[in-house]
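Changelog-adjacent note: as of this version, every example in the card shows the full chain rather than a window. The one below runs 32 residues end to end.
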Amino acid sequence: MELLILVWRQYRWPFISVMALSLASAALPAPD
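Full-length structure tokens:
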């Protein structure tokens, strides 16, 4: 469980930024 917290602290911001990026790309019309 401590390992999970450590990993979450380490990778929280990259994970959040990737989530936000994917949400933004899903919300925006894709250029084709």
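Structural remarks: Residues 2-27 form the longest helix (26 residues).
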